[in-house]
Amino acid sequence: MKKYIKQTWIIGVFALMASTLLSCKKQINLAPENATYDEVFWVNGANIDKALSGSYSMLRDAFRADNSYFIFGDIAANNFSLGGDFWNYNTFIESGHFNFNYAPYLEGSVKNWSRFYGIITQCHQIIDKTPAIPDSKFEGGAEQKNRLIGEARFLRAYVYFYMQRVWGDVILTKTTFKDPQNIPPAARTPESETLAFCLSDLQSASALLDNSANKTHANKMSALALLAHVYAWKKDYPNAEKYCDSVIQNSPLALEPIEDYKKIWEGNSQESIMELNMKYDAISNEATSTFFGRFLTAPYIKGRSGINSTWPINADLINEIFSEPEQRKEIMMETAAGGGNVKMLTKYTNVNYFDPNNSNTYVISNNLVLLRLADIYLLRAEARFKNGKPGDALLDLNKIRERAGLADYEETGTELFDEIADERRRELIGEGCTQFDLIRMEQLPRLFSDYTTDRIAKKGYFWPLDMRTLLKQDELLTQNEWWNNN
Prior knowledge:
Layout: H1 17-20, H2 37-41, H3 45-64, H4 68-75, H5 107-110, H6 114-129, H7 141-167, H8 191-208, H9 220-233, H10 237-249, E1 272-276, H11 315-321, H12 327-332, E2 333-335, E3 343-345, E4 351-352, E5 363-364, E6 368-372, H13 373-386, H14 390-404, H15 414-428, H16 434-440, H17 444-447, H18 453-457, H19 467-470
Antiparallel strand pairs: 1-6, 2-3, 4-5
Helix pairs in contact: 3-6, 3-7, 6-7, 7-8, 8-9, 9-10, 10-13, 13-14, 13-15, 14-15
């Protein structure tokens, strides 16, 4: 296999499919060295399925890079404190004034989007190449062919939408470059154009997919749920409510009862809509010790007493929004070993000491849930409030509060909207989405004094780009406005 990653452009466009698959070689066996790549790979459904599996694997790796999934969604939202081992993360939280520009040793993950463009390029290839392959080359015929295209369209939209919420305006590519040796510089694309492209992909995906796929693969419900989120980000709340309705009213999903609450992260629960496989098995390497392990001490992690190597839950947050007694809190928070009254998050606690020859070797065998039904109920509450339906918003909010063991909320007006935001934070803490919720719902100034009027106007909630690395490859690239002088 002689084709290697060629990062010829700022966004890390991978020149050929072969290069994008270097990180997941177990997924694909490439052709003999004397054959051209396209002629031997894009020929049947089995290879397309392998390429798609590679895309999911690349997304998992992208999220795990320096635990950036939780940095972007939870650390930046001040949900967690940081043990002493994480000195170079300290500027990301409130005590560091949310200074995302100072990221020593983390620039390659939090200030560089290249790894996500590898996924997008792979999805481009699947979407561009698959239609020309005869249906007879797919074990499941046209149905399987459509499903593979639909999943690739979902993933492409998911990644673009994710990047838009992290770094702001992206560089939008819509297809595979025909001449990877001559990729021209490109300016960043306005958010409206990127979101329109995401909506188009998701509409296509929802038409191509059904609900038969395992929840570690995209299906119709995940496409509809993501449509609701994109519309909410656009402040198009009528359409956001419409697609929330589609998920809630027309799917086999159901909220897990509180006694089974932790099943949500064990994999394939009745509440989950979309998740990434990170469970342990003896063959693959999907499970790791560090990704979910950042939240845990003993007794889950043997010998880990004290919080230097963990991310405990922010004590101020517990006092502010977890002050009422509730069953959910007792399930997902426990006292950290050696940390006094410090609490650790216990959503991800399936610790597996799998090696009989090494008693200290372990992985955390949980899945990463990207979309779930409680999220959509609360998103619909938000949309209903914005659509002038406070009574209906209360119904959705209280459905989640009741499951948690909280009394029904009764206030209306601004207090209701703020409570919906607080409930999202309570319900979804440690799931990589709080910061995006606070941005969308315009809650940052209410919660943090560092988010001044000027910082909000200059979109200082987005992360800066590593211009020293990326500008070399694209002379048209610009920095996010706030970070030009901060």
